[in-house]
Amino acid sequence: MKRLSLFLFLLIASYNILVAKSRDLTVLQMNVWQEGTRVKGGFDAIADEIARLHPDIVMLCEIRYYNGRKFILRLQKALEERGVTYNAVDHKGGDSNTTLTKPLMRF
């Protein structure tokens, strides 16, 4: 997982250099504490905060797919409803980690 995270970081950083944009790369890492299921309105709060900050890369941990629901797909849809588009990468494991990235290019 560290390799994939590093690869994503380098890929996005390289893209910004290649297109000669003078822009900072922003990263948000959150421990979402059991997908926000233990706090009333937790899921919406997670989506609201990502939409508010609008970072280039979002890394989330403590994703366990409670009740068989894919958290990353729900979050991706919730962000789209808030007008924010992210690509999702799901790193499966015991305490799954999830990475969202802004699209690098639009065709």
Structure description:
- The protein has 107 residues and is an alpha+beta fold.
- It has a single domain, classed as 2-Layer Sandwich (Translation Initiation Factor IF3), CATH 3.30.110.
- It contains three helices and four strands; from the N terminus they run αβαβαββ.
- β3 and β4 (96-101) form a beta hairpin.
- The radius of gyration is 14 Å and the shape is globular.
- β-sheet strand percentage: 15-25%
Shape: globular
Helix content: 25-40%
According to CATH, the fold-level topology is Translation Initiation Factor IF3
Order of helices and strands: HEHEHEE
With helices defined by DSSP (H or I, 4 residues minimum), what is the helix count? 3
Weakly predicted, low-confidence segments: none
Number of domains: 1
Q: Major β-sheet, in short?
A: 4 strands, mixed
Instruction: Compute the number of strand runs.
Output: 4
Label the CATH architecture: 2-Layer Sandwich
Describe this protein with a few key phrases.
4 strands, alpha+beta, Translation Initiation Factor IF3, four-stranded mixed β-sheet, globular, 21% strand, 37% helix, 107 residues
